[in-house]
Structures are given as structure tokens and as C-alpha cells.
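::Amino acid chain::
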Amino acid sequence: MTTTRSHRELKIYQLAFETATRIHEITKSFPSEEEYSLTNQIRRSSYSVCTHIAEAWRRRQDSNNFVSELTDSDSEVIASTVWLEFALHFKYITPELHKELAHRYDHICHQLTLMISDPEKWAHHHHE
């Protein structure tokens, strides 16, 4: 069994980070009038998915804090998927790109649910 020393080693964090950086790049091509609305909102929520996972990892010895941070991360996933639906509706992204990003967030949601359902596993064994 390998010991996970940092949230950066978690596959879920890596996927969330990669997805957030992808969204950052994609939103560079969004119309300038969206800068303070859609562009800003989707960037913020996609970044927050990552920050809450990192906070959860830091607080994993306290299962209530751990679950609370992961629940917040899950909420930010939901927000990100809604912003992606708006981006699709306004034709800022293609259906193919929307499907790919939505699939990534589905995967993250599923993993968060598993972690939330068994916080003790993460507190004591320090592994994925």
C-alpha cells in the first residue's frame, strides 16, 4: 500500500485540476462581454472543485470536516456543469467538448460520492 503524502497525488485532484486548466484555456475564446459573468463563474467554480479537495485532504483526520469540504467540492462540480450547459446553449463550446467535460465531472462526482460515503478509510489509511 502506498502512502499518499499530498492532495496532488490523488487521482481525483489531478483530474479536477486538469479539467479546470482546460476550462481556463477554453474560456479564453469566450466573448469579452462574458468576462465578468460566464467566463469568471465557470473558472471560479472549476478552481473551487480543486481547492475543496485539497482542504478535505488536509482535514481528513476529522471526518465531519472532510465530508463538509468534499460536499462543497461536489456543489462546485454541479455549478461547473450548469455553466457548461450555458456555454453549450450559447454555442461557445461544441457539443463534443461539452460531452467530454461533462463526462469528466460525472467521474469526479462519482469519486467524491465514494469518498464521502467512507471517510474513515481516508483518515486512517492515507491511500486512494
